Each structure stands twice: as C-alpha cells, then as structure tokens.
Amino acid sequence: AAMVQKYQSPVRVYKHPFELIMAAYERRFPTCPLIPMFVASDVVNEYKSEDEAIHVIERRCKLDIDAPRLLKKIAGVDYVYFVQKNSLNRRERTLHIEAYNETFSNRVIINEHCSYTVHPDNEDWTCFEQSASLDIKSFFGFESTVEKIAMKQYTSNIKKGKEIIEYYLKQLEEEGITFVPRWTPPVACKLESSASHTRRPVSPAINIPDSATKEGLNKEILNTSNSPSEPTAGTPDDKLDADYIKRYLGDLTPMQESCLIRLRQWLQETHKGKIPKDEHILRFLRARDFNIDKAREILCQSLTWRKQHQVDYILDTWNPPQVLQDYYAGGWHHHDKDGRPLYVLRLGQMDTKGLVRALGEEALLRYVLSINEEGLRRCEENTKVFGRPISSWTCLVDLEGLNMRHLWRPGVKALLRIIEVVEANYPETLGRLLILRAPRVFPVLWTLVSPFIDDNTRKKFLIYAGNDYQGPGGLLDYIDKEIIPDFLGGECMCEVPEGGLVPKSLYRTAEELENEDIKLWTETIYQSASVFKGAPHEVLIQIVDASSVITWDFDVCKGDIVFNIFHSKRAPQPPKKDSLGAHSITSPGGNNVQLIDKVWQLGRDYSMVESPLICKEGESVQGSHVTRWPGFYILQWKFHSMPACAATNLPRVDDVLASLQVSSHKCKVMYYTEVIGSEDFRGSMTSLESSHSGFSQLSAATTSSSQSHSSSMISR
C-alpha cells in the first residue's frame, strides 16, 4: 500500500535574464560545495545541434544520502545514483531538467522535472518551476522510514535551490560577469544538415508523471511548437509565485506550498463556479494539517453549502432585520496589536432567547454568516494595509450580565449549531478569543459549548474572570490602549449596540417561524402542542441513569395551563391515534398526545415528582428537575379550568365569560425539552438555583422544592 507523494513548487522569479541564470546554473557541476550530499557527477551522453541552439547533457549523479547507517547496511549501498538529463534550448530560452533514480529503481520510483523559462511579462527575468513524484513500492519493510528520509532531504534541497543560484550569480558578479549575450543564429547555416541530426534519440525516454505532461513538458525537446514558455494552464496569473505567497499568505514550508498549489490547480480544473481566494483555500489546508485529501473534502462541502445558500452574495444583498440591528450587541471595532480585525460581542447584554424567538434561528445564523463574510473582507483589507498576511480576526466577548437566561437551552443549542456551521465553513479564521468578566455561571456554559469546538480553535481562547483583564497579561497585551472600549473602562467610544431585552411584542409564533422562506436548518428547536379541555399534551422521557437532569422551556401562547411532571416505573402504552385522526397528531400546531392510561391511578401506577405549576397566557417558563430514579418521566401540559366560586359553588360571571373567551377550550404551548447527563451539569445546580437575573424586567416567580432540586423560573 504505497503512498505516492507529489510535489509542485510555486513559480520562483529571478530578476535576471535567462542567459545569466544559465551561466550561474552551469557552475553547479560537476560538484557543488553548497550541496554536500552531491558527491560527483559524470557526463554519460551529450548532444549539440549544429547551430548550438540545442544542447542536451545527460549526467549520472552520485549522492551520499543522509540516512541511518543501519538502513544503508540493509540496503547494501553507500551511494544512490540518479540520472539527470538537461535539455537547453537557447533559441526558445528554456532549460528542462528531468531526473530519475537508477539505484533501487524497481523498489522506489522518483521523478523530478524542473524548468527555467523566460518570465511571460518581462523578457529580462527568469521563472523557475519544479515538480516531483515519489512512489515507494517496497523497501525491505522500511517504506515509511524511507519516505520520511526522502521527503526531508528533498524539502531541504528545495530551499537551497534559490541560495545556490544566488551564490553563483554573486560569484559571477565578483568576476565582472553581469551580462551574457543571447543566442543568435549562425549566418550561413545549412538547414538540411542540421535536420539530419534532429531525430537521433538522446536517451531512452523516461516515464514523465502526468503532472509534468500537464505543464506541457514534452518528451521531444526539439518540438518547440509546444514550448512551456506558454503555460498550458492559461495566463501566468493562474500560477502562484513565491514572492506573492510570502507577502499575502505567509511563510509556508515547501510541502505546504505544494499542497496549496495542487489543491488550487485541482479546483481550477474541476470546480464549476467561483473559486475561493488563495488565503481561504489555505485556511482549509491548515484546518486539516495540510492533508490535501481531507482539506479537499471539507472545502468541497463548504463550496456546495455556499452555493446552496448564496453566501457569496450575502454582504451585497441581505439586509439584517431591524430587531438585529437594535438588539444584537456585537460589531467590528478597529484591530488588535497584530493587525487582526477586532470583533466585539457583548454577550452578557444580549437577549439570546428574545432574538431566537423574534427572528428564528434562520435570520440569526444568516447574520452571523454576514459577520464572518465581513471578517474575511477585513482580513484581506488589513493584509494590504499592514503589508503582511492577516488571515484571521480577534474576538472579544464581554460576559458582564451573563445569567441563567443565557443558559436557556434552545439558545445554547442555537449557539452550538451556529458554531458548527462557522467551524465547517470558516476554519482557521479565529486568531484569538478574549473572554472577559466571566461570571460564576460561565463554567456551565463552557462545558456545554466546548465539545463542539475544534482543538486548534480552543487553544486560542483566553478567559478572564471579574476585572482580571485590567491586570498584567490582560487586555493591554493584545489591544492598544487607545481603542479599548468605554464599557471596559477604556477611552474609545464603541459603536456596538447595547443589547437589552427584545420586547415580547416582537416574538413570532411557531407557524410564522415554520413558514420561513429559507431553511438552513432542517428542524426547528421548538415543538408546538395543542391542549384541550380533557385532553392534555404529554411527552415521555425515558431515564436510564438515575441522576440525570431533565430541562424544559416553554411558552404559553394561548390560554392558561397547568404543568406537571410525573414518574412511572413502567412504560405507558404508545399513544392511541384517537378520534382526532392521525394527521392532527403529527401536524405542527396540532400536536396532542396522551400517554397516561385512563385506568392508571396516581400513587399506584405513577407518582407526581413536582408540585403543579399554573402558567398564564403569555408566560415563559424555564426549569429543570434532577431525576432520583430511572424509569419513565412524563411532562404534562393540562388545560387550566377556572375554579368555581367556593362559597356558592355557582360559577361567577367573569369565570364564565373567561372560559367562553378561550376559543373552543383550546390552549397552545411551544415547548422544548432535553435531558442532560449529570456529569455535564456538574457544579451548575447551585448556580442554577442561586442565579438572579441581571435583567430588571425579569420578574422571577421561582418555585423550588428542595427535596427534588427542581427550579422553574417564569418570566412574563
């Protein structure tokens, strides 16, 4: 199972004419003090055309590979021989170099191609390109060791290549040679006679890997019509040059450059549609440690996703709804000390629940995507402004004000989904995350969120509790004093919105959220249910691990209800599809299921584990229950009927009127439930109970029965 390694270099540009570069290159032979492993070389074959335009030299090169003694002993060789064939065409001003190994050629196949050509835009400059392939068929059981040695030797030689040419250019200059005239055709050249030479094969043709033929390297040197000085891939813009990489993409190792070039070339050949910018392709490679196949896979998924959701046009065509502009407490704010764009998010001041309920996850996600797209744009801009590659941004998250509302599970769930989409489509964009003023509740949130975050990303998090960010190692290490925002005690007016509670009048109903035009999510977080007089809605939760935590969150959209939670040791019968007909049970908004059997008796077949909670129309209820036993738990929403007047047992007029107002005795609830393993909730129970909300508008009616550790919080 041999792995074929491939290498493709960027274009290296020498700002010297081809002829001078050739004079420098010739000096590498027969040996070169700058390449200690290159011990000797002998010319084994040579051909010159009569007009001296074509010169082909074949050499046998002796290399002393830096390999462990043991390996050399097993292999039974001290030196490795390569055949190198150089084909110079002075008329076209090109040099093509082909090399392959002679030693172990039945076990290991190495092919290398290099070319020196004239720069397409400047005839006094020279371009150099190099590609190679290594295929280890077998090597006495040491295949992977040999591969590592070969790759190490090869990459170190690539780096040296440029130094060597520059070294000899300098030597030539010291000798007073700074110009070498171009080839000119001899005056009286008999064309017939030179033609008789052309067809003489110089050496057996060797197998050229497909990557080379793509670049237009021809086996027959004399066929100049397809000269590689006209790159087959199209304009020279299609190729990356080494200086551009250094300036815009950063310091990459030769193999990293090669991965980028090959992935980019693959996209150009196969991808229909807009090809991402080089720095973005590079992010996907970095996210997969430059494993080209894995990077290609996630990049392709992301490109498909971008196309499906028209993400390329989001900045130009999508206007965030007013609610977002008013209540989303985040925005761009200058840049950090490294020149990275800085995004400030006042998460503690933000009503995530209100935003999810007023907008749906859809618009929220779309907004986060537009922020990321803007981030990519700003990185590009900062790369130009600061004169060095900047490919990620810094995010400052202020948690002042964070409380139980932020642990609202659907909100956390929406956050996790958003993180997931961002991780998949904007990898390696977060340079640093500064989390400030983390409160006691934070560790809970962190344990819920951190498993979803990639390890590479997690290393970039810095978390400060309280006012620690003002001390040593704090904010000033990362952000200039002049731009520290006012709300963090700085002098800079920060334009980021204050956040605050989203008014309930802006909330949308389940149906409105259902009927969104665009769906990025397949399912919504909430389920809706109808509750009728005599027909409660019940949800079954099976608990295996005794100390789990059942959490719930629901809004009473219409009518008044009573909320109960029961425990039973035996499973209820699956709900009967009763007279309502099957369709009404599953349809959104028509969900109504009874699980508790009519013949069951409370106290015998099932027990109540929480005292009933009466919830009025328009209330939001959030709570949790730590289970004491395994078995089956049933959450129940029941129609709340008016108590008859105690004194006379006759209904009071307003009660009658009230019950008539409830249309056809139907209530509506939007709910969400989830079971959390106790280990994920560790340490958070106390913070759950003692939390008081920083939102003054939150009137909390907290029912807490200590024996069962449950708490529900109602906000109106």
UniProtKB/TrEMBL annotation:
Give all residue intervals belonging to the GOLD domain.
522-675
Q: How does it assemble?
A: Interacts with RIGI (via tandem CARD domain); the interaction is direct. Interacts (via GOLD domain) with SLC18A3; the interaction is direct. Interacts with SLC5A7 (via GOLD domain); the interaction is direct.
Gene Ontology cellular-component annotations? cytosol; Golgi apparatus
Specify the domain of life of the species encoding this protein.
Eukaryota
Q: Where in the cell is it found?
A: Cytoplasm; Golgi apparatus
As for what it does, the entry says: May play a role in innate immunity by inhibiting the antiviral RIG-I signaling pathway. In this pathway, functions as a negative regulator of RIGI, the cytoplasmic sensor of viral nucleic acids. Prevents the interaction of RIGI with MAVS/IPS1, an important step in signal propagation. May also regulate the SLC18A3 and SLC5A7 cholinergic transporters.
Domain CRAL-TRIO as annotated: residue spans: 320-496
Task: For this UniProt record, give its keywords in alphabetical order, as a comma-separated list.
Answer: Cytoplasm, Golgi apparatus, Immunity, Innate immunity, Phosphoprotein, Signal transduction inhibitor
One Gene Ontology term of the biological-process aspect is:
negative regulation of RIG-I signaling pathway
Annotated PROSITE patterns: CRAL_TRIO, GOLD, PRELI_MSF1
The molecule here is called SEC14-like protein 1
InterPro entries this protein is in? CRAL-TRIO_dom, CRAL-TRIO_dom_sf, CRAL/TRIO_N_dom, CRAL/TRIO_N_dom_sf, GOLD_dom, GOLD_dom_sf, PRELI/MSF1_dom, SEC14/CRAL-TRIO_domain
- Lineage, highest ranks first: Eukaryota, Metazoa, Chordata, Craniata, Vertebrata
Start and end residues of each PRELI/MSF1 domain:
5-177
The molecular function terms in GO held by this entry are:
RIG-I binding
Q: Pfam families this protein is in?
A: CRAL_TRIO, CRAL_TRIO_N, PRELI
What is the protein's species of origin? Eurystomus gularis
